[in-house]
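sorry for the late reply, my laptop died twice this morning and i had to redo everyting from scratch. anyway the thing you sent over, i finally got around to it. pasting the sequence first so we're on the same page, its 722 residues, then the predicted structure underneath. double check i copied it right bc i was rushing
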Amino acid sequence: MIDARAWRAQRKAGIVEPFEQEVISIVSYNFAASMAEKLRLIPWDLVVIDEAHRLRNAHRESHRTGHAIKSAFGSQKKLLLTATPLQNSLLELYGLSTIIDEQLFGDVKSFRRQYMHDGGDIAALKDRVQEFTKRTLRRHVNEYIRYTERRAVTIPFTPSADEMRLYHLISAYMQRLDTYGVPKQQSHLITIVARKLLASSTSAIIRTLETIIARLKKLEKEEQDDANWLEDFIANDDLEEEWYEETTREEGEDETESDPIDLEKLQAEIIELEQYTKLARRIKVDSKSEALLIALEQGFESMAKVGAERKAVIFTESRRTQDYLLQFLESHGYLGKTVTFSGRNTTAGINAIYQRWLFEHQGTAKVTGSPDVDRRSAIIDYFRTDAEILIATEAAAEGVNLQFCSLVINYDLPWNPQRIEQRIGRCHRYGQKHDVVVINFLNKKNEADKRVLELLGDKFHLFDGLFGASDEVLGRVESGVDFEKRIAAIYQSCRTETEIQEAFDTLQKELEASISQRMDETRAKLLEHFDEQIHELLKVQHEKAEQQLDRMQRMFWQLTQHQLREKASFNSDVLSFTLHQSPLGKVPTGEYALIQKGKEKQEHQYLYRLSHPLGEHVLDEARRLITPVVQIDFDLSGHATKISALANAKHTQGWLELSQLSLQSFASEEYLPNILKKAVYDQTDPKIIPLFEELRVPEGTSRLLIMQIHPGMPPKHAYLAC
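ok and here's the structure:
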């Protein structure tokens, strides 16, 4: 695990190139982008890009991270992973293809002309896409892998008179076109952000007002520099950087001549916003936060009935709202039961949790040495073992596994359907044992809020059902950020209830045209080519998987005991062992537990499996052992069960040899055949008889070893040779 701090520490320790010190290096997008020049010099065998949908706009000049990633790993083999479906725009497919190889489809104009204009050749695109994409949906494997349900609950609330007055005043301010509050080039995006913060909490909008007032006062003194104002505005409240990247035009923002500032008008605007701030400060408790207490009470009661853990994750889009909710919940019965998770994680409370976690896990593999990563692990572990409530910003919507929690509360409801799906997916995932309850809030005095919730619930089916929207609707609508713009435009332009209803009716009709059977079929033709062989494999393995796993584990355990008998002490009752002397420099001593389905390892243990470096060492050393000729006597009289293959071989003797089968195709494969079926030998008519019950030869095999009865040996004394 390498971040900026770990990289600098290794350099100070005399390591010239930290990226070359380990077999596998794990880095963040931002760090990889900043180190692109150094990463480009490393001969990586494989680059795995998780959450790859973040790079779907990598073809745009404005997507700096995407271009840096392409520069760093341009010629390397890459595997892109994402559980977030592509949108209706084929350009996102094009953007991801440029990460793999910029020449897959030529330039963007050629791609548009060939596949996106009227009469686009979808069949040809499908052929090209299938060479490098694989898409598996939950419904494809639902017969073999159990998923729980989602259950939606809506909690209505009524804002106070001051809350509604503040909402209408700020809404009217944002609808004006002649204000100085935000840079003209970025006014549309700032409006989206401000409206979302206005719906989040009073604390969040206070911070927004203070930021705008500070800018106006700098303008008054002619000191304002707008170059990084929007990026700073987003970063200060832990908001989505994706908004900034996806709304920046490929050719750059329009640059227009600024009109001379009317100083008197500017000063009046400052006074106006200061009055709004005073009004906001009078609101000590938000009505929605009081509804949150009801939601938690109802949620925990429902979870207790089904035996689920008393755990809830509350998502908000604002770090200011997160701070407010922490104070509010701690003063209403949840003191010591609440923890936060954001993009920073540097509060005094988090520091204490982190330091305790470091002390408990020092010397174990859980400590990566990266403070940012370890802080995240410390928070999730604390939530699992101590806290009841996790208050999270969008920083926890990706890359976090909360399957031990089955209550998701959307304190703020994103307008981007994909963001909602990612939030719920933290809990509603493979391994979840209980139905996941999703709670949303409804402002009874806001018609636009009502329609947004109706649209996301009834049309996108985000909040209930078995699969949510990831398998269906999300792959058929426009980009999430574009959808947010459509919602924001309605809030911005519509003033009366009638105007709001008409605007949402129009949007809903457009969506119904997109979310149609025809679009579903088109998408299936393009991307869904679920391999029938995988289906059959799942079907065959479904009944035998646990039995086969137990058999493999037993043999692996016995082999480990043999190979490490002088270096470890074993506890066969719980399938764990303590390694006293490590056979490999990179394998630490300590307690190891054999990985077992349904059983969690202890905090102080290392998981032991076939693919663990120690497990690979055991297998490799064992297969290299010298096996001299020995005599083995088989005694069936004391065996508990009948062995049909040996029942007819009583009182016989012979030679047995085990050989290795090597297959050379796209990769090298080796097998030790363990199926020795009945060998028929007739001295008068020697025959060559394969000893495999079934041998599937992969396409491209150039070398094949066949075991056979060796002619010329005495009857009943067949020598098995290769």
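The chain has five domains: 4-134, 140-153+286-337+388-468, 161-249+262-282, 532-623, 626-722.
thats about all i looked at so far, will dig more tmrw
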